[in-house]
Write a structure and sequence with these properties.
With about 130 residues, this protein is mainly alpha-helical. The protein has one domain. Helix content is about 40%, strand content about 10%. The strands form 2 sheets. It has a two-stranded antiparallel ribbon with strand order 1-2. A two-stranded antiparallel ribbon has the order 3-4. A hairpin with a 2-residue loop joins strand 1 and strand 2. The chain is globular, with a radius of gyration of 17 Å.
């Protein structure tokens, strides 16, 4: 299993209303992070603060500026970052938890060898998850 390539597939797929934030997370944002809380309405996350309409994508998913773009050349894969990584919802922190999720989502961390030994790949994923949280 490779390290995360920051392809953004998981954030794009699940950041469109499929995520949940606990009341505790919402309360913390209200008190300490109003920039995040601005996108909460009626305990739903990622709602446009101006229109009240649920957003199609997480407002904190950002395209990482790359050296190739800065130098004027175009190319290479787009990489994404999370603008609220340290304060992201628990739903985000828990992804991915299952290899089957990653396969369904076409996660770029998966290598051919992982598909040949699913049990071993799940163990690798469990170690990666433990270290990242």
């Amino acid at each position: 299993m490779k390290d995360c390539t920051q392809c953004g597939k998981c954030c794009i797929k699940y950041g469109n209303g499929s995520l949940f934030a606990s009341q505790e997370e919402i309360d913390q944002w209200e008190l300490f992070e109003p920039n995040i809380f601005a996108y909460v309405a009626n305990n739903e996350i990622w709602v446009d603060p101006k229109t009240g309409i649920k957003l199609e994508r997480c407002p904190f998913l950002e395209i990482e500026p790359s050296a190739s773009v800065e130098s004027g050349s175009v190319g290479g894969p787009i990489k994404y970052t999370c603008g609220i990584y340290e304060s992201r919802p628990e739903d985000c922190r828990q992804y991915p938890s299952l290899l089957s999720e990653m396969i369904a989502d076409e996660c770029e961390m998966i290598e051919v060898g992982d598909l040949e030994n699913l049990r071993l790949a799940q163990k690798k994923l469990s170690r990666i998850i433990k270290d990242s949280r």
